[in-house]
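INFO  loader      accepted 1 record
INFO  loader      residues=237
INFO  predictor   begin
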Amino acid sequence: MSHAVEAVVLDIEGTTSATGFVVDVLYPYARERFGVLLAERAGEPAVARALAQVRTELGEPDAGPARIEQTLNAWLDEDRKATPLKTLQGVLWAEGFARGELVSHFFADVVPALRRWRAQGVRLYVYSSGSVAAQRAWFGHSPEGDLRELVTGWYDTENAGPKHLAGSFRAIAADTGIAPERLLFLSDRGSELDAARAAGWRVVGVRRPGEPYYEEGSRGHVRAGTFEDIEVVGSGA
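INFO  predictor   done
INFO  writer      dumping tokens
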């Protein structure tokens, strides 16, 4: 099926990149560094904002660093998509990428497709539960070099809203100035695809064997095994 659109919006984990890399490499990297971050850098604006959000979610305005670190690790164990957790992970990952301690992962079919779509005049956006800082670091430190120039804009649960809500997709459409039917969302998670479709977007479920949501099935959405199976053309073509 061909999709004549102005933009493609990308999920990362399980869609462009392996969940196993995130869980096995990035999560432990952050877990090992939360304590130092909370103890030494609590006054930095992004960190301070995230700490306030954790305290609000806990209902404990006086929660100290040890309590907050315990909470962050519990959320990691649950794979909870909590905005303050993603913010603090993003701070640590961005620094790890910048120091060369981390290099991101992309499935082999992804980067050629992204370059092909951009060459056709299709804009690319990222919408991930990971923070914008983490997204930019991810695309900026790939095995194929800096890919950030391919991406027009970045969205996360803080600047767009939760990914399972149609309102978040309506907000992104409004921000980009692109009509919903001219936006294509790619994700491996059914609830996200449902929300995007409810907002009037086109969607494709990316079903990669071995990924956590592979067994979930297509839930009535168009599906693709790789980006090579997705035909995208600029809406003016």
